[in-house]
Amino acid sequence: MILWYNLFMESQMLVVKASGKTEPFAEDKLRRSLERSRASEEVIQRVVNTITQEFKSGSHTKDIYRRAFSLLRKYQPHVAARYSLKRAIMELGPEGHPFENLVGEIFKAQGYTTNVSVVVQGECVSHEVDVVAQKERKCLMVECKFHNQQGTRSDVKVALYVQARFEDIKKRWQKDPSHGREFHEAWLVTNTQLTSDAIQYASCVGMRAVGWNHPAKGNLQNLIEESGLHPFTCLTTLSGSNKRALMDQGVSLCKDVIKDRALLKRIGLNDAKIAKVEQEIEMLCRP
Fold first, then answer.
1. pLDDT at site 193
2. pLDDT, tens digit, for every residue of 217-262?
3. What is the DSSP string of 153-190?
4. CA-CA distance, 273 to 255, in Å (whole number)?
5. Is 195 exposed, middle or buried (0-12, 13-18, 19+ CB in 10 A)?
6. What three-state secondary structure class fits 234?
7. End-to-end CA distance of the chain
8. Distances in Å between the alpha carbon of 50 and those of 27, 43, 195?
Protein backbone atom coordinates (compact mmCIF):
# COMPACT_ATOMS: atom_id res chain seq x y z
CA MET A 1 0.00 0.00 0.00
CA ILE A 2 2.80 2.43 0.92
CA LEU A 3 4.67 1.60 -2.31
CA TRP A 4 1.49 2.19 -4.35
CA TYR A 5 0.94 5.54 -2.62
CA ASN A 6 4.53 6.66 -3.26
CA LEU A 7 4.28 5.71 -6.94
CA PHE A 8 0.96 7.56 -7.17
CA MET A 9 2.42 10.73 -5.64
CA GLU A 10 5.44 10.58 -7.95
CA SER A 11 3.09 10.48 -10.94
CA GLN A 12 1.21 13.56 -9.72
CA MET A 13 2.13 17.15 -10.47
CA LEU A 14 2.58 18.78 -7.07
CA VAL A 15 1.93 22.49 -6.60
CA VAL A 16 2.95 24.89 -3.84
CA LYS A 17 0.07 26.93 -2.37
CA ALA A 18 0.30 30.49 -1.03
CA SER A 19 0.45 29.07 2.50
CA GLY A 20 3.58 27.10 1.59
CA LYS A 21 1.82 23.74 1.68
CA THR A 22 2.25 21.28 -1.18
CA GLU A 23 -0.63 19.35 -2.71
CA PRO A 24 -1.38 17.47 -5.96
CA PHE A 25 -2.45 19.68 -8.86
CA ALA A 26 -6.22 19.36 -9.35
CA GLU A 27 -7.17 19.83 -12.97
CA ASP A 28 -10.87 19.63 -12.10
CA LYS A 29 -10.44 22.52 -9.65
CA LEU A 30 -8.89 24.66 -12.41
CA ARG A 31 -11.75 23.73 -14.73
CA ARG A 32 -14.36 24.68 -12.13
CA SER A 33 -12.77 28.07 -11.56
CA LEU A 34 -12.78 28.71 -15.31
CA GLU A 35 -16.40 27.58 -15.57
CA ARG A 36 -17.42 29.89 -12.72
CA SER A 37 -15.78 32.72 -14.63
CA ARG A 38 -18.05 31.83 -17.59
CA ALA A 39 -15.24 30.96 -19.98
CA SER A 40 -16.32 29.10 -23.12
CA GLU A 41 -15.64 25.36 -23.30
CA GLU A 42 -13.11 25.93 -26.08
CA VAL A 43 -11.17 28.46 -23.99
CA ILE A 44 -11.32 26.25 -20.90
CA GLN A 45 -9.75 23.39 -22.85
CA ARG A 46 -7.04 25.67 -24.27
CA VAL A 47 -6.13 26.97 -20.81
CA VAL A 48 -6.10 23.52 -19.20
CA ASN A 49 -3.97 22.08 -22.00
CA THR A 50 -1.45 24.92 -21.77
CA ILE A 51 -1.19 24.72 -17.97
CA THR A 52 -0.68 20.94 -17.90
CA GLN A 53 1.95 21.14 -20.65
CA GLU A 54 3.93 24.12 -19.36
CA PHE A 55 4.02 23.54 -15.62
CA LYS A 56 5.97 20.86 -13.78
CA SER A 57 5.85 19.49 -10.26
CA GLY A 58 6.89 22.09 -7.68
CA SER A 59 5.24 25.01 -9.48
CA HIS A 60 3.55 27.69 -7.39
CA THR A 61 -0.20 28.18 -7.64
CA LYS A 62 0.32 31.93 -8.05
CA ASP A 63 2.32 31.28 -11.24
CA ILE A 64 -0.39 28.96 -12.56
CA TYR A 65 -3.00 31.61 -11.80
CA ARG A 66 -0.99 34.29 -13.63
CA ARG A 67 -0.60 32.10 -16.70
CA ALA A 68 -4.30 31.19 -16.73
CA PHE A 69 -5.20 34.87 -16.31
CA SER A 70 -2.93 35.94 -19.20
CA LEU A 71 -4.52 33.31 -21.47
CA LEU A 72 -8.03 34.40 -20.53
CA ARG A 73 -7.08 38.02 -21.09
CA LYS A 74 -5.96 37.07 -24.59
CA TYR A 75 -9.04 35.01 -25.48
CA GLN A 76 -11.90 36.52 -23.40
CA PRO A 77 -10.92 39.71 -21.49
CA HIS A 78 -14.19 40.04 -19.55
CA VAL A 79 -13.79 36.43 -18.37
CA ALA A 80 -10.27 37.25 -17.18
CA ALA A 81 -11.73 40.10 -15.14
CA ARG A 82 -14.21 37.73 -13.50
CA TYR A 83 -11.47 35.11 -12.93
CA SER A 84 -9.38 37.68 -11.03
CA LEU A 85 -12.19 38.62 -8.62
CA LYS A 86 -10.57 37.30 -5.44
CA ARG A 87 -7.28 39.05 -6.10
CA ALA A 88 -9.07 42.20 -7.25
CA ILE A 89 -10.77 42.49 -3.86
CA MET A 90 -7.37 42.23 -2.17
CA GLU A 91 -6.08 45.01 -4.41
CA LEU A 92 -8.66 47.35 -2.84
CA GLY A 93 -6.42 47.40 0.24
CA PRO A 94 -4.25 47.75 2.21
CA GLU A 95 -6.97 49.27 4.41
CA GLY A 96 -10.31 47.54 4.84
CA HIS A 97 -12.66 50.50 4.27
CA PRO A 98 -13.29 49.82 0.55
CA PHE A 99 -14.19 46.23 1.44
CA GLU A 100 -16.66 47.50 4.03
CA ASN A 101 -18.25 49.66 1.33
CA LEU A 102 -18.49 46.61 -0.94
CA VAL A 103 -20.21 44.56 1.78
CA GLY A 104 -22.58 47.45 2.51
CA GLU A 105 -23.52 47.60 -1.18
CA ILE A 106 -24.18 43.85 -1.25
CA PHE A 107 -26.67 44.18 1.63
CA LYS A 108 -28.21 47.24 -0.02
CA ALA A 109 -28.77 45.18 -3.19
CA GLN A 110 -30.73 42.71 -1.05
CA GLY A 111 -33.11 45.41 0.14
CA TYR A 112 -31.40 46.49 3.36
CA THR A 113 -30.83 50.07 4.47
CA THR A 114 -27.14 50.26 5.30
CA ASN A 115 -24.66 52.49 7.11
CA VAL A 116 -20.91 51.95 7.13
CA SER A 117 -18.59 52.60 10.10
CA VAL A 118 -21.18 53.30 12.80
CA VAL A 119 -20.12 53.89 16.41
CA VAL A 120 -22.38 51.94 18.81
CA GLN A 121 -22.16 52.07 22.59
CA GLY A 122 -21.82 48.75 24.39
CA GLU A 123 -22.16 47.91 28.09
CA CYS A 124 -18.40 48.19 28.63
CA VAL A 125 -16.99 50.17 25.69
CA SER A 126 -18.08 51.76 22.42
CA HIS A 127 -17.62 49.85 19.15
CA GLU A 128 -17.23 50.91 15.54
CA VAL A 129 -19.50 48.53 13.65
CA ASP A 130 -18.35 48.07 10.05
CA VAL A 131 -21.84 47.77 8.52
CA VAL A 132 -25.27 48.22 10.10
CA ALA A 133 -27.90 46.64 7.85
CA GLN A 134 -31.62 46.97 8.53
CA LYS A 135 -34.67 45.58 6.74
CA GLU A 136 -38.12 45.90 8.24
CA ARG A 137 -37.61 45.16 11.95
CA LYS A 138 -34.45 43.10 11.56
CA CYS A 139 -31.14 44.80 12.30
CA LEU A 140 -27.75 43.18 11.59
CA MET A 141 -24.32 43.94 13.03
CA VAL A 142 -21.88 43.08 10.23
CA GLU A 143 -18.16 42.84 10.89
CA CYS A 144 -15.88 42.76 7.83
CA LYS A 145 -12.52 41.01 8.07
CA PHE A 146 -10.32 42.07 5.17
CA HIS A 147 -7.08 40.36 4.18
CA ASN A 148 -4.78 41.56 1.39
CA GLN A 149 -2.50 38.52 1.23
CA GLN A 150 -3.15 35.16 -0.40
CA GLY A 151 -3.20 32.15 1.90
CA THR A 152 -4.53 34.09 4.92
CA ARG A 153 -7.63 32.71 6.62
CA SER A 154 -10.00 34.12 9.24
CA ASP A 155 -9.71 31.89 12.29
CA VAL A 156 -11.80 31.27 15.39
CA LYS A 157 -10.23 34.24 17.21
CA VAL A 158 -11.91 36.55 14.69
CA ALA A 159 -15.30 34.90 15.29
CA LEU A 160 -14.80 35.12 19.08
CA TYR A 161 -13.98 38.83 18.75
CA VAL A 162 -17.13 39.53 16.72
CA GLN A 163 -19.32 37.62 19.17
CA ALA A 164 -17.82 39.45 22.17
CA ARG A 165 -18.63 42.81 20.57
CA PHE A 166 -22.15 41.67 19.71
CA GLU A 167 -22.79 40.56 23.30
CA ASP A 168 -21.43 43.80 24.77
CA ILE A 169 -23.73 45.88 22.55
CA LYS A 170 -26.66 43.55 23.31
CA LYS A 171 -26.14 43.94 27.08
CA ARG A 172 -26.29 47.72 26.76
CA TRP A 173 -29.56 47.58 24.85
CA GLN A 174 -31.10 45.09 27.32
CA LYS A 175 -30.15 47.40 30.18
CA ASP A 176 -31.55 50.52 28.51
CA PRO A 177 -33.63 49.89 25.32
CA SER A 178 -34.28 53.60 24.92
CA HIS A 179 -30.56 54.14 24.32
CA GLY A 180 -29.27 52.83 21.02
CA ARG A 181 -30.69 50.05 18.85
CA GLU A 182 -31.28 46.34 19.11
CA PHE A 183 -29.17 44.08 16.91
CA HIS A 184 -30.78 40.74 16.09
CA GLU A 185 -27.87 38.98 14.41
CA ALA A 186 -24.09 39.20 14.18
CA TRP A 187 -22.47 38.54 10.82
CA LEU A 188 -18.81 37.94 9.99
CA VAL A 189 -17.92 38.58 6.34
CA THR A 190 -14.38 37.94 5.09
CA ASN A 191 -12.78 38.02 1.65
CA THR A 192 -10.75 34.86 2.30
CA GLN A 193 -11.45 31.41 3.67
CA LEU A 194 -12.69 30.65 7.17
CA THR A 195 -11.07 27.96 9.31
CA SER A 196 -13.21 24.98 10.30
CA ASP A 197 -13.10 26.12 13.94
CA ALA A 198 -14.37 29.58 12.98
CA ILE A 199 -17.25 28.02 11.04
CA GLN A 200 -18.09 25.63 13.87
CA TYR A 201 -18.03 28.36 16.52
CA ALA A 202 -20.16 30.73 14.43
CA SER A 203 -22.73 28.00 13.88
CA CYS A 204 -22.78 27.18 17.60
CA VAL A 205 -23.49 30.77 18.76
CA GLY A 206 -25.87 31.64 15.91
CA MET A 207 -23.52 33.94 14.02
CA ARG A 208 -23.69 34.11 10.21
CA ALA A 209 -20.20 33.53 8.79
CA VAL A 210 -19.61 34.33 5.13
CA GLY A 211 -16.25 33.70 3.46
CA TRP A 212 -14.91 33.47 -0.05
CA ASN A 213 -16.33 29.97 -0.57
CA HIS A 214 -18.49 29.47 2.55
CA PRO A 215 -21.32 28.62 2.75
CA ALA A 216 -21.77 26.54 -0.39
CA LYS A 217 -24.57 28.88 -1.47
CA GLY A 218 -24.53 32.53 -0.48
CA ASN A 219 -20.74 32.82 -0.13
CA LEU A 220 -18.97 36.08 -0.94
CA GLN A 221 -18.17 35.07 -4.51
CA ASN A 222 -21.84 34.15 -5.12
CA LEU A 223 -23.08 37.40 -3.61
CA ILE A 224 -20.84 39.55 -5.79
CA GLU A 225 -21.64 37.63 -8.97
CA GLU A 226 -25.39 37.65 -8.33
CA SER A 227 -25.49 41.38 -7.58
CA GLY A 228 -22.99 42.45 -10.26
CA LEU A 229 -21.08 44.45 -7.64
CA HIS A 230 -17.56 43.82 -8.92
CA PRO A 231 -14.62 45.89 -7.67
CA PHE A 232 -13.17 48.10 -10.40
CA THR A 233 -9.75 46.49 -9.76
CA CYS A 234 -11.04 43.50 -11.80
CA LEU A 235 -10.88 45.49 -15.01
CA THR A 236 -8.29 44.41 -17.57
CA THR A 237 -8.78 47.56 -19.65
CA LEU A 238 -7.26 49.75 -16.92
CA SER A 239 -3.56 49.96 -16.18
CA GLY A 240 -2.09 49.85 -12.68
CA SER A 241 -1.62 53.62 -12.71
CA ASN A 242 -5.24 54.09 -13.87
CA LYS A 243 -6.45 51.99 -10.94
CA ARG A 244 -4.33 53.87 -8.42
CA ALA A 245 -5.70 57.16 -9.75
CA LEU A 246 -9.29 55.93 -9.38
CA MET A 247 -8.54 54.66 -5.88
CA ASP A 248 -7.31 58.16 -4.98
CA GLN A 249 -10.73 59.39 -6.17
CA GLY A 250 -12.42 57.08 -3.62
CA VAL A 251 -13.69 54.59 -6.21
CA SER A 252 -14.35 50.98 -5.13
CA LEU A 253 -16.80 49.42 -7.57
CA CYS A 254 -17.32 49.19 -11.31
CA LYS A 255 -20.73 50.78 -10.87
CA ASP A 256 -19.02 53.89 -9.45
CA VAL A 257 -16.99 54.16 -12.66
CA ILE A 258 -19.90 53.64 -15.03
CA LYS A 259 -22.20 56.18 -13.37
CA ASP A 260 -19.63 58.99 -13.62
CA ARG A 261 -17.89 58.98 -17.01
CA ALA A 262 -16.01 62.13 -16.02
CA LEU A 263 -13.94 60.04 -13.59
CA LEU A 264 -12.22 58.32 -16.50
CA LYS A 265 -11.70 61.66 -18.22
CA ARG A 266 -10.07 63.08 -15.10
CA ILE A 267 -7.48 60.29 -14.96
CA GLY A 268 -6.49 60.95 -18.59
CA LEU A 269 -8.40 58.36 -20.65
CA ASN A 270 -9.54 59.30 -24.15
CA ASP A 271 -12.96 58.49 -25.60
CA ALA A 272 -11.81 55.29 -27.33
CA LYS A 273 -10.26 53.94 -24.12
CA ILE A 274 -13.31 54.92 -22.09
CA ALA A 275 -15.55 53.04 -24.52
CA LYS A 276 -13.48 49.87 -23.99
CA VAL A 277 -13.68 50.24 -20.22
CA GLU A 278 -17.44 50.73 -20.36
CA GLN A 279 -17.87 47.71 -22.62
CA GLU A 280 -15.88 45.51 -20.23
CA ILE A 281 -17.90 46.72 -17.25
CA GLU A 282 -21.15 45.99 -19.05
CA MET A 283 -20.07 42.41 -19.82
CA LEU A 284 -18.47 41.79 -16.43
CA CYS A 285 -21.18 43.16 -14.14
CA ARG A 286 -24.16 41.57 -15.83
CA PRO A 287 -25.79 39.60 -12.95
1. 94
2. 999 999 999 999 999 999 999 999 999 999 888 889 999 998 888 8
3. EE-HHHHHHHHHHHHHHHHHHHH-TTSS----EEEEEE
4. 17
5. middle
6. helix
7. 49
8. 12, 11, 33
